[in-house]
Amino acid sequence: EDGGIEYFNTIVVQPHLKLVTNQGRGFHVRCRYQTRDKVITNDQTRVAMLQSLPLQ
Fold it and tell me: Which intervals hold domain ZP (predicted)?
């Protein structure tokens, strides 16, 4: 398991709205998505905490 999910679909496109003819085109579509978490680090950026002020 590589931490992903795959979807396989077949899409048929016909040039006519109501008739199925041999002019249609078929497409096999494969979609792959990574679902596992990744840790990203950046040692170059410095972040400082903001000071809070009381509301008046």
Answer: 1-56
pLDDT at 10: 95
What's the number of domains the chain is made of?
A: 1
Q: What torsion, rounded to 10 degrees, do the Cα atoms 24, 30, 33, 34 define?
A: -170
DSSP 1-56: --SEEEEEEEEEE-SSSS---TT-EEEEEEEEEE-S------SS----PPPP----
Residue partners of 20: CB distance under 8 A and separation at least 6: 14
> Could you tell me if residue 29 is inside a domain?
yes
Q: pTM higher than 0.90, yes or no? A: no
